[in-house]
Amino acid sequence: MSKPRPIVAELGRPETPEETAARKAEFSAKYRAGQSFRNLIAALIITLAVVAVIIFAVPRGEPASERQIDLPRIAADVESTMDSPVLVPELGDFWRVNAAELQGGATTVWNVTLAPADEDERGFIRVAQAFNADASWAPQILNGTAATETTRIGGLEWDVYALSGRTENNVDNAIGTQAGDDYILLYGSRSKESTAEVAESLIPQIRTISEAQ
Prior knowledge:
Largest sheet: 7 strands, antiparallel
Strand content: 25-35%
Oligomer: single chain
Structural class: alpha+beta
Radius of gyration: 38 Å
Distance between the termini: 116 Å
Number of strands: 9
Shape: rod-shaped
Helix content: 25-40%
Number of helices: 5
Order of helices and strands: EEHHEEEHEEEEHH
């Protein structure tokens, strides 16, 4: 026995099949709309939760740790490769190492770039040891500038390169000396006094290099 159709109050009679279908379609549409709204709210809540995790879980305002350069280890590898002693600048509290590498080419060069550890200090000094080279190599690094005079630092004679203004590599002073078969060049943007201090600290090692060759 079929279920009697519901009475439509405002009509006072059973609804027709068309009215039943229309009522069910309207109900389904409202249900789907409600579900979509609830899903949207749920998605927003999840998104906000993820953002909150990113904001509060990730450390903020902390600088990335600087890459530590193991100068003694790299220098030992270079000495083994070149079968010759190399310069290893003493850093102390003032200096840190920005780069240390062996560069190939027509002349093989061991480069160590020093920069002040204090961020308030500016400039750099590069210590370059050119293997089997002499003073004629330096102008290749210094935009063609040759030595104009000499000075004595730590009991050794150093060539002085008078650079007219800062070069494109931010170099405004340079000094160099012969160490056996190698040529040692210190150049950069620190003061002449600062460069001379680094040069003097290298004197014992320069003498060792000279005696070993």
